[in-house]
Task: structure prediction
Amino acid sequence: MTEEKVEYTAGSGGEPKKHHYSTRLRRNFKDGDWLNLVEAAAILSANSGREIKSRYLAEMVRRDQLHPDQSNPRGWLYEYTELKDKQVLAHPGRRKLDQPTGNTLRQREYKARRRSVAE
Result:
């Protein structure tokens, strides 16, 4: 099982480097390490700042966001290199633009009119 202990040290580009600790290995994970489902979910939770359920990883595989090693008969293994910087956003989907297009503004006005008529 992995603790959600994340240490930050100064990185080469000014950004902090993350170190995720593994109680199973009794050391920080390194590139090339393979993680089980629970450890992978703990890494994503630590990176995202909120709990990520282990069953959500199967959804990420279906969406081609993760690429596990499926040769293990006991379960899929996830490579640490792929998970160490990955975050799961709180609100999936398209983001609102800072400068919305004309069509977006037209749709917003239409929806506002429809709401006011319905009330």
